[in-house]
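Example record

The entry below shows one chain as it appears in the dataset: sequence first, then structure tokens.
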Amino acid sequence: MSANAGNQSGQLTLRRDVRFNGVKVFSATMVADRDQLGEKVSDWMQRNQQFKVTDIVVTQSSDEAFHCIAITVFYWEDTQRK
């Protein structure tokens, strides 16, 4: 499985060099929540050190009233250890 990241023109870019078998998405639209998003990701990573993070993609989207930030964490979980 390979990570995919969209570029600014909306095209799909396949990244065969990045392997993952798990994804965690963090998102926020409110200002206070957006300000704390990085800390939430760091806290999750600290609590889940059994996962090897293989890629992180930050995405911003907006309309007239709202701005949304999403941080998508791709990771590898060693399923042999379960």
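Notes for this example: DSSP finds one helix and five strands in the chain. The beta strands are 2-6, 12-19, 22-28, 51-62, 67-77.
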